[in-house]
Design goal:
By secondary structure, the protein is mainly alpha-helical. The protein has three helices and no strands.
């Protein structure tokens, strides 16, 4: 099975977010999730979605 470079990078980012070696960011997590789904990597996409759901809500900008 061959993987695109984007898929390899998305897998790496997802693992980094899930295991805590990357700063959790909901926007990045959802962008990576979307790419994993497009690439057909359903298991890692589901794990990343569960992780994203566990993140605290981001603060609303004041003003």
């Amino acid at each position: 099975m061959t993987m695109s470079l984007q898929h390899v990078i998305a897998r790496s980012k997802a693992r980094g977010l899930i295991n805590g070696s990357a700063t959790p960011d909901l926007g990045q997590a959802m962008a990576v999730h979307r790419l994993l789904v497009l690439e057909g990597d359903a298991l890692l996409a589901a794990a990343l979605l569960n992780f994203a759901r566990s993140l605290p809500p981001s603060a609303e900008p004041v003003g």
